[in-house]
Amino acid sequence: MIGNAPFFVVGVLFLMGLLGIFMTKNLIKIAIAVSILGSSVNIFLVALGYRTGGTIPVHFLAGEGSTMVMPTPQAMTLTAIVIALATTALLLSLIMLVWRHYGTIDVDEIRRLRG
């Protein structure tokens, strides 16, 4: 019944992230857009690893002959979440430093002040 709905959500979130990165001038909004873009990639990985009727990917708990979901996309998603957390923290700390130095977080104003 769900079909391709997760992939539609991934496409919408991906486009929202790209538009947020390229269309806004506020550094905080750009950081949020990068986070949305990372979330769309995580949803895509989870959707790729899904199998209808699949169980957890642990052999001794799943039982003989049962269909299991793919564990590789799950591991990649966990890794991507940790990387996204570190990237977001770094982006926000750099935005704080830019604000302290220039007194603004508007990209056009920073370019104008820089000379």
Bin the strand percentage.
under 5%
Order of helices and strands: HHHHH
Distance between the termini: 57 Å
- The CATH class label is Mainly Alpha
Radius of gyration: 20 Å
Q: Which percent range fits the helix content? A: over 70%
Q: What is the general shape? A: elongated
Count the E strands. Answer: 0
Number of domains: 1
The structure class reads mainly alpha
Q: Give the CATH topology.
A: Helix Hairpins
Key traits:
115 residues, mainly alpha, Helix Hairpins, 5 helices
Description:
Helix content is 75%, strand content 0%. Helix 1 (5-23) runs antiparallel to helix 2 and helix 2 packs antiparallel against helix 4 (71-102). The longest helix is centred in the C-terminal third of the chain and has 32 residues, at 71-102. By secondary structure, it is mostly helical. The mean pLDDT is 87. It has a single domain (2-109), classed as Helix Hairpins, CATH 1.10.287. The protein contains 5 helices and no strands.
